[in-house]
Specification:
230 residues, alpha+beta, Arc Repressor Mutant, subunit A, 8 helices, 10 strands
């Protein structure tokens, strides 16, 4: 069945929002905010997705993907993250450039092209930002990561994932070495959601609490990569 780019974008957005809501239905207002459109536009698209059997909607309970909708969402996420890694590894794009390029390309590659990219990159599990890449059969790693904002003072951790992919923020983090794989020590945490003082490669870095919330980490020696069907 032919799908429009808009349908695929909505399915991907609903899937990601459902994860943040622990599987609860996505409110229309929240989906509208994510897509940058009016509530009425979301209502019309949700109705269409329901007619296609890709989502369900209940008043006061929000929108949830069906299994077929979830499958398409994961397919698009796989396309996107494989393309991000391909752009970075093979074409020399920086990690702050790959998101927008992959967003344009993800709707237009064939399954054969997807398989060739995966093979070329040796079946990768993570994109340049540390985001897990769904497998062909709909599995995605359960990482068990913690936000940097929750780490106690005098604690050493390893950066694994950066959720916020605003290009300006990514360039800032790269300047200070706060990228996946970086070893970091939390030196000081100000109370009441104040900034954090970090030690990164011998340099002191001050980071706002809201930014630290989107940097996900593990303690050294932890193995948090258990596949989970989704």
């Amino acid at each position: 069945m032919s799908r429009s780019q808009s349908v695929e974008d909505y399915l991907k957005a609903i899937y990601k929002l459902e994860l943040n809501l622990d599987g609860k239905g996505v409110p229309t207002s929240e989906l509208a905010r994510e897509m940058g459109v009016a509530n009425a536009s979301v209502t019309n698209m949700v109705k269409r997705l329901s007619e296609l059997g890709m989502a369900t909607h209940q008043s006061y309970y929000g929108t949830k993907l069906t299994e077929s909708g979830k499958k398409i969402a994961l397919e698009m996420i796989r396309h996107h993250r494989l393309l991000e890694l391909y752009l970075a590894e093979m074409l020399g794009y920086s990690w702050d450039q790959v998101h927008d390029e992959a967003e344009k390309l993800e709707h237009h590659i064939s399954e054969q092209f997807e398989d060739r990219i995966s093979e070329l990159l040796d079946d990768p599990k993570f994109d340049p930002h540390g985001d897990p890449i769904p497998s062909k059969d709909g599995k995605i790693p359960r990482l068990g990561l913690k936000p940097l904002s929750e780490i106690n003072e005098s604690t050493k951790i390893i950066v694994k994932r950066v959720k916020n992919q605003d290009p300006e923020l990514l360039r800032y983090l790269h300047t200070y070495g706060l990228t996946p794989g970086s070893n970091v020590k939390v030196i000081k945490k100000e109370p009441f959601d104040g900034p954090l003082e970090l030690l990164v490669d011998g340099k002191t870095v001050t980071l706002g609490h809201n930014i630290a919330e989107d940097i996900l980490v593990v303690y050294p020696g932890e193995s948090k990569n258990q596949p989970q069907a989704v």
